[in-house]
Amino acid sequence: MEINKQYEPQKIEKKWYKFWEENGFFSPQIDKNKQPYTILMPPPNITGILHMGHVLNNTLQDVMIRYKRMTGLPTLWIPGTDHAGIATQNIVEKELYQKEGKTRHDIGREELIKRIWQWKEEKGNRIIEQLKQLGASCDWSRQRFTMDEGLSEAVKEVFIQLYEKGLIYKGKRIINWCPRCVTALANDEVEYMEESGHLWNMKYPLKDGSGFVTVATTRPETMLGDTAVAVNPNDQRYQKLIGKKVILPFVEREIPIIADEYVDMEFGSGCVKITPAHDPNDFEIGQRHDLEQILVIDENGVMNENAGSMFQGMDRFECRKKLIKELEDRKLLAGIEEHQHSVGHCYRCDTAIEPYLSDQWFVSMKPLAKRAIDVVKDGQVKFQPQRWVKVYLHWMENVRDWCISRQIWWGHRIPAYYTPQNQIVVAKNKQEALQKARQKYDENLQLEELRQDKDVLDTWFSSWLWPFSTMGWPQDTEEQEYFLPTNLLVTAPGIIYLWVARMIMSTLEFKDKIPFETVLLHGMVLDEQGRKMSKSLGNSPDPIHIIEEVGADALRFSMIFNTPKGEDSYYSEKILENGRNFANKIWNAFRFMMMNIEKIEGLPKPHELKLELADKWIYSRLQQVIANVTHYYEKLRLNDAAAALQEFIWNEFCAWYLELAKERIYDDSNREGQLTAKYILLDVLQNSMRLLHPIMPFITEEIFQVIKQYFPIAEDAIIVAKFPKADNKLIDKQTDADMQLIQEAISAIRNLRKQVNISPAVQVQTIIKVENNEQVALLNSYQNYFDKLAKTNDMQIAVQMQRPAKSIAAVVQNIEIYLPLSGVVDLEEEKNKLGKQQTQLEKELQKINGKLNNNKFLNNAPANIVTKEKAKQDEVETKLNKVKKILAGLE
């Protein structure tokens, strides 16, 4: 059989992915006699291109889906994409302006939406194709899009039901407004950053001319919308001012001084300007005191007519500069203080958000939150790591109403309709709305008189229905009955509030079920310096480029191996090298085996095997690895599974068993031993590939398909092959202990040879002093292992043994190993060389000790430098002691 000398993932990955898809291995059959295993893919945005975060998230999911598929469960991984309202519209609007010099208003709503759909068809599927390159084994026949027909139906149904229950309402509220995206944002879509700013102290003249009150603000431009000044009713300083009026500078408006307990007497002067239309706390105070709400900034962040002619038409930040200068000129600026404060920014475009009074649609969250809190508290929904439960509960117990309306065009249009008298009906379409409006308001109403709300729903309003809308709700489907609740959600902590919590609420409300049993929250993928990956830092590699260069398996293994459960992952070229080297190691071992095995005709039955120590040991170790890896997969400790498999395949199977089996494989005169070695090599490798398949699917399928030609395997493909089960009868602790003693002894001899630079080609005499006769028998029985792997040719083993002159020694467990050096190395030359090493190490140690005994160094050097010096001291002392020991043995 011709097997490529080099592992070439590019040749095999596309081949096997196509094979899996064409054979329907990703699509489960509903089997009422079996419990299914289901994962919902967090839908990537259609604007998205695969990045390292996607690689980690989707590899974690795919590992679990492939593992559970191999255990025989019907496994479903539902994929899909999100329409990403603001982000997608921004891209198409930008293209429209760059290519045609037009805005969305120039072409109108229908034409813009048509163009976005065209963009989605052309480019919106890129990330799905990239996920396929990564090896994602989703059921693509069930792929959903948050604006496809079925999900749109679900969105309308949910809106109508919640509205009719009084849980969706429309009202004037202070919301977060992005002047760049020209839309409202939910609280969870605002990212706060600490910024250095100023606190401006401004003087408002009292109407009666008796003086001034001083107020402080970080947003002086909003003063133009002030409708009161508030003081605390318990503040003795201002008792006489309550009820008086001040004149608001520039607009010359009379505004009252009111008393409200919200005011902090300790902050600033104790007087607070109240702007109900531009601050959420001021809005609440305004409601209590029936204050006027005056908007002075428009939806684009520009000062409007209410700001007065001096400032109208100015950008809010330009207005700020001019207003401060005018206050100074009028001697109304009492002072400026440096001030660190948290400023909200749009999560999409990074623009500073503006608290803004607006008519918006809201979901009342507290009634929905109660059950969602209970199912986490009682353990029906589990968070891993568990520390996130506290974060979830804190947010849910303090949940605020969710602003769901967005002032853009791309998205689910709000299914609310208005009569000419602005009466509201909610319905799935205009015809249905007309029937409702005629019954409720006016039986003579005409269709053309109704107008639909212009706003669209928040993107998350469709995403929160993902667990059941993807399975056909609002229709009753077999999928909802069988696959819901799902088993696992893998996502990032950053969207616990935006998505995870809301899915729990909606699924309980509309399906009376939890959406998932376990939420696995993983960290971020950072660079080796611990920085977030970004294009601007140039530290964000292209995963597709990596896949094309080293293969998806190498990338997947590297990411899983290096990501402890629930922690951040640190990516670097060195980490990728581990995955690539492991794939190459597997390939080289496989190629060597097949090149030699295919020449050996026949294959024994298991009961015909003639097992020796190494055979029993590799089977014993295999069973232990099967048990451990199964445990790790079940507990979502996937990095531990990867580490255990690399250790077993590389350091036990390849480095030890395969090397020891070569002797029998090459020995045509020992037919029985040759066939035994062939059988065990094939058996252990095919089991190892099954264990490794969830993490490295492509190389394992390639190797499995070749082994099938030489070994009795019933399954058509490894992707649907049975996951191994540990056979405890094959675990033999005595065998393990015997083999461990031999391995440690061989390693010790190799190290002794290395210490005095004995050429690998030279065979050496070895003398071993053991503890008992059982050890004598064991080591004598397997002298061939030492001859093969330690290049020995004359081993003397006994309980009573004297150390020979001019030898070097090592102690392993309870045995002593001696290597006589006379006639093997030039002793004088070796002594001379070791003497020089000793002198050099003593000088180095003296220098280090000098530093560490110097109080000035210890007190002034950074802690990490001192730690490094101490580590260096330990290292040099160890080397020096070793050199002294060798020199003593040469005397």
What this model shows, in words?
The longest helix is centred in the last third of the chain and has 29 residues, at 638-666. The protein is 46% helix and 17% strand. By secondary structure, the chain is of the alpha/beta class. α2 (52-70) links the parallel β1 and β2.
Separation of the first and last Cα atoms: 56 Å
Oligomer: single chain
Major beta sheet summary? 4 strands, antiparallel
- The general outline is globular
The chain-level structural class is alpha/beta
Q: Order of strands side by side in the largest beta sheet?
A: 6-5-14-16
Poorly predicted runs of 5 or more residues: none
**Helical proportion, percent range:** 40-55%
**CA gyration radius, whole angstroms:** 37 Å
Beta-strand residue percentage: 15-25%
Number of helices: 29
**Mean pLDDT, nearest integer?**
93
Number of E strands: 29
Quick structural gist:
The chain is α/β, with parallel strands linked by helices.
